[in-house]
Structures are given as structure tokens and as C-alpha cells.
Amino acid sequence: MTQNDLVTQDLVLAGWSIVLALVQLGLAGIGKRMQEPRLWGAGPRDDVMSYSGRTARLIRAQSNLMETLPMFLGAVAIAHLAGRNGSLSVLGAELYLAGRVIYVPLYWFGVPYVRTLVWLVATLGLCLVLTDCLS
User: Which domain holds residue 81?
Assistant: First the structure.
């Protein structure tokens, strides 16, 4: 068995989900720096900052991703380690990542309803990976 045999499509998609998390972290950080007083980030940050507009939405989108990403990564890891990573987990991983990528601009631009539907697609993807784990 080669190293390439160990790298499955669902693991690659999990890796790209981590890249998405880093991108969202960066976008939210840039937005924060633009609304903070000069050199505020270099200090102890004892005061609570209040962010508004698109920056606040980027922060909430990032927070939302961080709520489900550990579960998604865990489900992919369990499916992979148990040898239960079949077509259902790959489809689930694809839906999760695609949904999470589409979710960011929808949240950033404040698009209601469609954003919720896209979140549901991503969550369905997570559930499909989990289903492959438990079947």
C-alpha cells in the first residue's frame, strides 16, 4: 500500500475545509483590523470591541464554521480509519465543503433564506459522512 492509497477524496476535501477555515480567519481578521483603533491589536485587548456591518457578518460566518468543522473532520477521520469512507462520505464531504464555501459570500452580503438553505446543504453533507461512519 502506497501513501497515495491512504489519501482518499474525503480526506482531501477535509483538508480543503481547513484551508477554508484559514481563509475565513484571515478575512475576519482583516475586517477587524479595519474597524479597530490603530495599534489596538498590539495591546492587551482588555476592552470588548464591537464590530459592525460586513465585518460582523464575517466574524459570525467564521464562528458558524468553527461550530461544525470539528464534527465534520471527526466524522471524516472516523469513516477513514474504520474503512467506511465510501461514496456516501465523499458526497457528504463535497456537499459540506461546497456549502461552506458558498455560505461565506452569502453571509458577507447579508443574503437571507438562501444562506440558511446553503447551511442546510452543508449540514446534510456532514450527516452523510456520519451515516457512512455508522453504517
Answer: 3-134
